[in-house]
C-alpha cells in the first residue's frame, strides 16, 4: 500500500468520525494501522481474512503500533461468508481490499452495513493500469470496470475515484 493511500485512509476514517470500520482483507495490517489512526480513539476495526497467518501478523503489527487489543476484532473467514453476520447500518466505513472478483458483492454488502453518510472504499481499482488499457483483459479487470459503472450509476451513492496509489474508489452512502 502506498503512503498516499495510507494517508487517504486515515483522512477518510477521520472524515466520518469512524467508530466502527469493517475491513475486507486484513493482510499484514498496513491498511488497518492507517484506518485505526484516523478513527476515533474508542473506535473498533472489524477485519476479515481467510488466512489466519495474515491476521496473526496484523495483530502483532497493531500491538507494535501501540493500539490496545480491544481496538480490533479479527474474524477469520471469507468475506461473503462473514459479512452477512455483521449488523445492518452498524458501520461508518467499509474498506474493501480482498478478492477483486468479489468487489461487486462487497458493494452490495457494504450498502447494508453502512449507516447513511457512511463511506465504502475500494483499493486497487487501476489494477496497475489494466483498467484503462483497451487491450484484452482478465475477468478481474472486467469486474472492476463493472464496479465502476455500478457505483457511478447508483442513486444511493456519491462517488469519487481518488488517483492515489493503485486507485482508491470512494463513495458516500446517501
Ligand atoms: C492485498 S491483501 C490486503 C492487504 C491489507 N489490506 C493491507 O493493507 O495490509 C488481500 C488480502 O485479502 C485476503 N482475501 C482473499 N480473499 C478474500 C476473501 N474472499 N475475503 C476476505 N479476504 C480475502 C487475502 O488473504 C489477503 O490477506
TrEMBL record:
GO molecular function (one): O-methyltransferase activity
InterPro entries, sorted: Cation-dep_OMT, SAM-dependent_MTases_sf, SAM_O-MeTrfase
Pfam families named in the record: Methyltransf_3
Domain of life: Bacteria
Keywords assigned: Methyltransferase, S-adenosyl-L-methionine, Transferase
Glycosyltransferase found in the keyword field: no
Gene3D superfamilies, per database record: Vaccinia Virus protein VP39
A Gene Ontology BP annotation from the UniProt entry: methylation
Listed name of the protein: Methyltransferase
Source lineage: Bacteria, Bacillati, Actinomycetota, Actinomycetes, Kitasatosporales
